[in-house]
Amino acid sequence: MGLINIISDRKNVTLDSDVILYIIMHGKIAEIHIVGGRVYETRVTLKNLEGLLKEEFVKIHRGCIVSVKAVHDVTDMVNLSDGEEHTTSETFATQ
Asked: What is the pTM of this model?
């Protein structure tokens, strides 16, 4: 468990790493997806976020890290506990 501070929508936001499901990059914008469906956008590099989140998250491709706690199953896709799945593309789809 850890807290990270970001700026999203010109506001300081503190997030508990336990509520973060995954972070996916879209250009220079990091989309932080949390439990409950909320998404925070911030201009932080994935490398910086990885440093803040440490071993609690795993990189599944160069533009995405996923919470180890959120992974339900790994086959040819990464299936998250909230029903989302990740294929080889950089987008998540709801099952």
From this structure: 0.78
